[in-house]
Specification:
mainly beta; 2 domains; five-stranded mixed β-sheet
Length: about 725
């Protein structure tokens, strides 16, 4: 395993400092390991199941992890899991990449509800990101790696992210009827301050929880502090009410409202062409972005056994997402490209992305006998998405000829999805062997609502069916060690924004025209693994191999010549169209270990290796990561806990011609938490203690010049603090 020299030195120093003789406590160590193995997850089967009994790899971030790591934004959730990466930063478009696959090819779910899709060039979602959610509302985050369409349907091509929110019962203990928390924090990553409160109330069979959070800060900076400044303000209101009919049945209602406002000093998209154009000087510019998400859910849950189910979940939900981006620029123009032009021009560009989803979700399980437990369910969802853009150029308050200009990046599109799944958990050999075949039938329709293309012809509608299969097996070699293997299929409905996009960017030498015939993207995932513990040693490892077919990518279908309106010169414009042309292969290995030295100390490490190529061109995928991982030591006694963690990555040599290799790195973080009283806890974190300047490969991938990598370096040494008071 590759380890940078600084990382090895840090581990040696930390071990020498922390590991001192201490009494061994068998029960405490056993409970710690047992807790990890018995952690309840839902992403593997849509029902609660101990992680140790799931035939597949699932990463879990708990509420305790979020508190301990001082996570304040989705971009920070997986910073100690090398198999999962998050692109983007606070205030920007964020996406989660699982084993080298990201964007809308990874399905994101909150309490069973489909979360918003993203939007951007080539499906990278670099304009509108994913996961409009506040981390203080989360009880657990699960990442089920690999294709999962036999259970979740479309978009579970490369994996799923399942967010589970908190209940009042998470705060009320020992018969309490009222409880709450107040939390304040600060991180110099973005100079963000935050304050939040949670109130939980139980009255008879009725319980409620309310969380309010406010955050105010700036952009996440690079090492040199040269990123353009942003002011970022966000607020969240989360409410969940639950009525218990009896011990086995309840009805719940959830409302989750999140908003973020971002203001900046630059107008990239609006003024990009004019920034270096002779005779055009920028007098003023700024940008504003407002992101809003509102989700509502009514859910019925019952574990009262009937002839058709032992467990039943039924829910109705709505999820609405909007992002409005406004850019303004003022130009002083004194140019002559065939005719003189002298004016002070005011320019605005307003872009609005909207997506609204209504859904019906259901899943149930029924134990037929000691051998067979059937799981089944029906999902029906309808989404409406649009992206409009309005440009206004004016001089002295009077719009110029032809303005305002309103365009749709793609027509308002309705996508209907319905699917029925069934699986059978087969228990053999007195429960030592678990075998789970599954299948799902999906039907989907994509409708452009009769909209016409620029040439006057209608956009194509899509109406298709798809069947996804899976099979998984788990064998318990002992009570504490199990091996697993699984095969799963995934698919994704053709992306409406890529299929229907009609984007004329001739001024930059290209345009994109809509597609009429697209097949769903598909994947096949194979995985084998081993996990468990022996004595004080916990381990987990997996090997995977995934193939992806019918990837949407741009294909050049022709050229045309136009006249540049500013220079009068002829320009050759490339005409592109999204088509099913690519297939790719991803493979890799993941491993994690933890050894409990004694009652107080443990050492741990994990690592991930990825390899991925385009099967047609042989090019490496820029979404894979180099060999990377963490190594650390943990200390916990009474009310004090501490961790020293080394993040490391090897040099990325799997780059394509014309792209630079990205250097490896090793950084050191220190996390500590102290329970001052039963009610009051203080948590601190120092990140990148050695003030290392480095670039994460995913941020540097695709750069053609080493000089530009300085723009995407990570921040230097950082400090975070949080105080929590429970009552």
């Amino acid at each position: 395993m590759f380890m940078p020299k600084r990382a090895l030195l840090a581990i040696a120093i930390s071990t020498a400092i922390f590991v001192a003789p201490s009494s061994y406590a068998e029960d405490n160590v056993h409970n710690t390991v047992h807790s990890a193995l018995e952690r309840i997850v839902i992403s593997g089967t849509k029902t609660e199941k101990p992680l140790k009994d799931v035939a597949g790899s699932i990463s879990v971030i708990t509420e305790q992890d979020i508190e301990r790591q001082l996570v304040t934004d989705m971009s920070q959730l997986f910073k100690y899991d090398p198999s999962v990466q998050v692109t983007g930063s606070i205030g920007g478009a964020q996406n989660i990449i699982v084993r080298g696959m990201g964007g809308d090819r990874v399905l994101m779910i909150k309490d069973g509800m489909r979360m918003n899709e993203g939007y951007g060039a080539n499906g990278l979602n670099d304009i509108v990101g994913r996961g409009f959610i506040d981390t203080d509302t989360l009880k657990q985050v699960e990442v089920a790696k690999g294709a999962s369409s036999s259970l979740y349907g479309s978009d579970a091509l490369g994996g799923i992210i399942v967010f589970t929110t908190k209940d009042a019962a998470d705060y009320l203990t020992d018969g309490e009827t009222f409880a709450g928390t107040v939390k304040v924090g600060y991180t110099d990553d973005g100079k963000q301050g935050n304050i939040g409160t949670t109130l939980a109330l139980a009255t008879g069979d009725f319980e409620q929880v309310l969380n309010l959070t406010y955050r105010d800060g700036e952009e996440s900076q690079n090492y040199a502090g040269t990123k353009p400044s942003l002011a970022i303000e966000s607020s969240s209101m989360f409410y969940k009410a639950k009525y218990h009919f009896n011990d086995d049945t309840y009805l719940s209602f959830t409302a989750d409202i999140w908003q973020q406002d971002v203001t900046g000093d630059l107008a990239y998209g609006l003024l990009g062409y004019f920034r270096d154009l002779e005779g055009y000087s920028i007098i003023d510019e700024n940008s504003q972005s407002q992101k809003d998400n509102q989700s509502l859910q009514l859910r019925f849950h019952s574990e009262t056994k009937t002839a058709v189910y032992d467990l039943l979940n039924v829910s109705l939900y709505s999820n609405s997402t909007e992002q409005e981006d406004i850019e303004y620029g003022q130009l002083d123009i004194n140019a002559n490209y065939g005719y003189p032009l002298i004016e002070i021009r005011d320019m605005w560009k307003t872009a609005l992305y909207k997506q609204a989803t209504l859904g019906f979700l259901s899943n149930a399980s029924l134990a037929l006998n000691d051998t067979h437990t059937i799981g089944y369910g029906l999902d029906i969802e309808q989404s409406t998405s649009s992206r409009t853009e309005v440009k206004l150029y004016s001089v002295e308050g009077t719009p110029k000829n032809g303005y305002p200009q309103a365009t749709d990046k793609f027509p308002e599109t309705d996508v209907f999805r319905a699917g029925f799944f069934i699986n059978d958990e087969i228990s053999l050999l007195d429960g030592k062997l678990l075998f789970t075949p599954g299948a799902r039938f999906d039907t989907y329709q994509m409708d452009a609502n009769g909209a016409l293309k620029e040439d006057g012809t209608p956009y194509a509608d899509f109406d298709e069916n798809h069947v996804s299969l899976s099979i998984g097996g788990l064998y318990k070699f002992t009570n504490t060690i199990a091996g697993f293997a699984q095969y799963g299929q995934g698919f994704k409905v053709p992306a409406y924004d890529l299929a229907y996009i009609e984007h004329d960017n001739s001024m930059y030498g290209y345009k994109i025209v809509p597609s009429d015939d697209l097949a769903p993207e598909e994947s096949d995932n194979f995985e084998i693994g081993l996990r468990g513990h022996t004595g004080n040693f916990f381990f987990s490892t997996a090997i995977y191999y995934s193939t992806f077919d019918n990837f949407l990518a741009t294909e050049v279908i022709g050229h045309e010549t136009i006249t540049d309106p500013y220079t009068g010169q002829d320009m050759l414009v490339e005409i592109n169209q999204y088509q099913n042309i690519d297939s790719v292969t991803l493979k890799g290995i993941e491993a994690a270990v933890r050894y409990h030295i004694n009652d107080s100390f443990s050492v741990f490490a994990n690592a991930a290796y990825q390899d991925g190529k385009d099967d047609e061109s042989g090019d490496y995928l820029t979404s894979i990561s180099p060999l990377s991982g963490i190594t650390g030591v943990s200390y916990e006694v009474d009310d004090l806990s501490a961790e020293l963690i080394v993040n490391w990555a090897s040099r990325m040599e799997k780059v394509n011609d014309g792209s630079p290799e990205i250097a490896g790195y090793g950084t050191v973080d220190f996390l500590t938490s102290y329970q001052v009283t039963d009610e009051f806890r203080v948590s601190l974190a120092i990140t990148n203690i050695t003030d290392k300047e480095y670039v994460k490969y995913l941020n540097g991938a695709g750069h053609k010049d080493m000089a530009t990598l300085s723009d995407v370096t990570e921040a230097g040494r950082g400090f975070s603090a949080s105080m929590r008071y429970d009552f």
